[in-house]
Amino acid sequence: MFGIGGGELFFIILVVLMLFGSDKIPDIARALGKGMAQLKNATNEIKSEIQKGAQDSGLDMNTLTGGVSEEIAKAKEGIVKMVNPMENINLDVQNPIEQVKEDIENITGPVKRQM
User: pTM of the predicted model, to two decimals?
Assistant: First the structure.
């Protein structure tokens, strides 16, 4: 959660408790909850107004955002290919390595450790 560990969270709670006291913390939490609800409602209203305006002007938001998503996916694939060009090359190097190991085993026989 926001890169905060358990000890840091405990320290923050302790400082808040010391600054405001135990009697004011529920009021602060209630005010923060109301503020978050108002912010969520405001963003939902703005979103619905944008969608309503787009529909009134004859634009389909799903096709617009779908095209943007496709372009972002294409750009991401291009970046991945530029960063790691060897990813698309399929070289089967495991087979030759195993073949060499078998050849060495056949020539020398099983190797025993000497203590």
Answer: 0.42
